[in-house]
Amino acid sequence: MSGDDFRIISSLRYDPALPAIVGAADFYPDPLRTPYYLLPYHQERLRSAATCFGWDKAITFLKQDLHQFAQFLDSFIPDNTKPWRLRIVMDSTGACDVEVNPTASMDPLSLLTPSQSTSQSNTWRVYIDPERIAPSALTTHKTTTRDFYTAARLRSGITSLLEQAEVLLVNPSGEIMEGSITTPYFRRRDTTRGDNKDWVTPPLSSGGNAGTTRQYALAQGFCTEQVITAADLVDGEECWLSNGVRGFIRGRIVLRGSEDPHT
Description:
transaminase activity, D-amino Acid Aminotransferase, Chain A, domain 2, D-amino Acid Aminotransferase, Chain A, domain 1, alpha/beta, Aminotransferase-like, 263 residues
């Protein structure tokens, strides 16, 4: 696998409202209280990917302390009073670029935890990809090699990142890996606690991405890991999704044939 073929990436949210809401939150994993959502996890994610691919120069760049890393990102922010979507892109030589685009304002509390008050009108349709994807380092780590994600979205009729819709990737064993742009969470009964139901997310052994909001959700006890098969999912069941730009999003499973993907 040549480093000339792809770059490692991590997408995150810059939000000037974030420091105020996490100021009293001891559990939030950013001691600097920066406007960058889960910044330590993004740095760690990039460093883990660089280590996996043996990119020594990238690893050296990513070993800088968190304050230096935040200052580096600050140089790309056009207006620090507005929210932005950042896409950190790094190649095997350690060269790092940051693509910055406007992003919609949102309730910053949605970045910290799933909220039962989330509007039903913002519920995303969640489809299941009918094809199977083989797990690899390119599914575990986020890179610019994303053709298989794009293809899965198109198979479910999702043609724009602006659509409130997601598709779940499935490995050859029929296990849910992840979403094309999100980590999914499902409510399942804990066999050790009777009828209680808890939120679970697929384990990395199923082949999905080691996402930042996934790491945060696990660390905060919002969910545990459990293998979920495509056959387990029920049409209309509620789920949660998350990513580093939008935080936590309510979702609803839509099985093939139960709804036109374009509606």
